[in-house]
């Protein structure tokens, strides 16, 4: 019997209990199947890793039929969001074409034949439809999130403990409400890079009750929010500002050009300067 066949069979048998357990941990479960193009044996692990999300989504990929069986919590995610992650990993599928740069990064033996017509249509769509549909979708997704950040920043400026606590809760909810699958490609890539940092910092803010310590934690949001603002196309100008005196130098984002320092409030309200203007 073919050695590779035996190894593949053993791998399937060994992973089957894990897959069953993972499926059982997913609530509001729904299962659907989709075409995902691939060529090499390594594709299975890469595709499944790209789409899997603990307790939310499980992808089981059959390379022989090029079929991805997706089991997911329909209240937490969607097949569109999962298939977009798989496309960003380099694999064309029933809903999304992989970005050219993602496809090019696949090992040569894994670069499957692409439907030229689909690629051309995808490129045309990126040029004509991208700015209208995706920009509108991502603005709808990110506007409430950035609004919650600016409201939190203003609460720190006013140094109102109860308002700070309230706005931390609003920020956490706005963060959780962002649907990554509806972001543009550029914003999506940044979101995947910064999401863990945002979630960690948001959790730290909610656990801390001392406003001075909260300000130190708040300063950690500046870098990921800055990266996202550069790709978000919010429709208004964002000012990236800095205070050289707080915690060895700390930054924040503002919709106002005038300096209103969130780290010192009324103690040194105008301490700082604008280091970059991010245009709409």
Question: Features of this protein?
Answer:
280 residues, three-stranded antiparallel beta sheet, disordered N terminus
Layout of secondary structure:
Elements lengths: L2 H22 L4 E7 L7 H9 L5 E6 L4 E7 L5 H10 L11 H5 L11 H13 L1 H29 L2 H17 L7 H23 L3 H8 L3 H11 L5 E6 L6 E5 L18 E6 L2
Antiparallel strand pairs: 1-3, 2-3, 4-5, 4-6
Helix pairs in contact: 2-3, 6-7, 7-8, 8-10
Give me the number of helical elements: 10
Give the H and E element order.
HEHEEHHHHHHHHEEE
**Beta-strand share of residues:** 5-15%
Strand order of the largest sheet: 1-3-2
Shape: elongated
Number of strands: 6
Mean pLDDT: 85
* Unreliably modeled segments: 1-18, 120-133
**Rg, Cα atoms, Å:** 22 Å
Oligomer: single chain
Binned, the helix content reads 40-55%
- The domain tally reads 2
End-to-end Cα distance, whole Å, is 62 Å
| Biggest pleated sheet | 3 strands, antiparallel
What structural class do you assign from the helix and strand content? alpha+beta
What does this molecule look like?
By secondary structure, this protein is α+β, with helices and mostly antiparallel strands. The protein folds into two domains: 82 residues, Alpha-Beta Plaits (2-Layer Sandwich), CATH 3.30.70; 138 residues, no CATH class. Helix content is 52%, strand content 13%. The chain has ten helices and six strands. A three-stranded antiparallel sheet has the order 1-3-2. The chain has a three-stranded antiparallel sheet with strand order 5-4-6, covered by helices on one side. Helix 2 packs across helix 3 and helix 6 runs antiparallel to helix 7. The N terminus is likely disordered.
């Amino acid at each position: 019997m073919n050695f590779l066949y035996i190894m593949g069979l053993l791998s399937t048998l060994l992973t089957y209990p894990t897959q069953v357990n993972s499926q059982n941990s997913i609530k509001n479960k729904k299962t659907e199947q989709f075409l995902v193009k691939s060529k090499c044996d390594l594709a299975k692990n890469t595709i499944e890793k790209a789409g899997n999300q603990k307790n939310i989504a499980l992808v089981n990929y059959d390379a022989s039929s090029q079929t991805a069986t997706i089991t997911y919590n329909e209240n937490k995610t969607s097949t569109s969001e999962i298939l977009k992650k798989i496309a960003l990993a380099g694999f064309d599928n029933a809903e999304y074409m992989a970005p050219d740069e993602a496809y090019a990064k696949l090992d040569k033996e894994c670069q499957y034949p692409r439907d030229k017509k689909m690629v051309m249509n995808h490129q045309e769509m990126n040029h004509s439809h991208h700015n209208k549909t995706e920009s509108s979708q991502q603005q709808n997704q990110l506007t409430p999130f950035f609004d919650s950040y600016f409201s939190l920043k203003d609460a720190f400026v006013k140094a109102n403990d109860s308002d700070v606590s309230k706005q931390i809760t609003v920020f956490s909810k706005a963060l959780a409400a962002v649907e990554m699958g509806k972001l543009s490609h550029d914003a999506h890539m940044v979101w995947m890079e910064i999401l863990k940092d945002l979630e960690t910092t948001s959790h730290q803010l909610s656990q801390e009750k001392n406003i001075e310590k909260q300000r130190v934690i708040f300063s950690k949001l500046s870098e990921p929010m800055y990266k996202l603002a550069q790709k978000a196309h919010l429709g208004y100008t964002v000012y990236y500002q800095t205070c050289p005196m707080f915690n060895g130098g700390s930054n924040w984002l503002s919709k106002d050009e005038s300096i209103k320092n969130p780290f010192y409030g009324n103690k040194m309200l105008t301490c700082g300067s604008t280091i970059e203007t991010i245009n709409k």
